[in-house]
Design goal:
It is built from four helices and no strands. The protein has 123 residues and is mostly helical. Helix 1 runs antiparallel to helix 2 and helix 2 runs antiparallel to helix 3. The chain is elongated, with a radius of gyration of 17 Å. The protein starts with a helix and ends in a 12-residue tail after the last helix.
């Protein structure tokens, strides 16, 4: 593991936290366009992380950061009653949709053939 690859993973980790926070605020603000924008941002981050590193770790690092941020940090109800997620359909679509997008991107990254040259089969 080189220093450049560690730097990319740290950058993806920070980007996962930022996309989670921005998506949480945007998805409820401009429904349904904000929800589509939030899920597109999540998908772009996961797909871009996989393409940038060439490994499924490029999807899993921002995916884990997104998951921890959304479910553990932003979903907590404070004693004052503050809550970033409303009890609407858009919030549930954002939560489950982000997980589905992460699984799709991680699976697609594992299925991509590497090192295969285009050409005729058999020589």
């Amino acid at each position: 593991m080189t220093a450049g690859r560690v730097g990319i993973y740290v950058l993806l980790l920070v980007a996962g936290v930022l996309v989670a926070g921005a998506g949480t605020l945007v998805q409820a603000a401009w429904f349904p366009g904000g929800l589509a924008l939030a899920l597109a941002g999540v998908g772009g981050l996961f797909y871009g992380g996989g393409r940038a590193t060439g490994t499924s770790g490029g999807v899993l690092v921002p995916g884990a950061a997104w998951l921890v941020t959304v479910f553990l940090l932003l979903s907590n109800v404070r004693p004052e009653g503050d809550f970033l997620f409303g009890a609407g359909l858009g919030s549930y679509i954002f939560l489950l949709g982000g997980i589905v997008v992460a699984v799709i991107c991680a699976t697609a990254q594992q299925m991509r053939p590497t090192g295969v040259r285009p050409g005729r089969v058999g020589g």
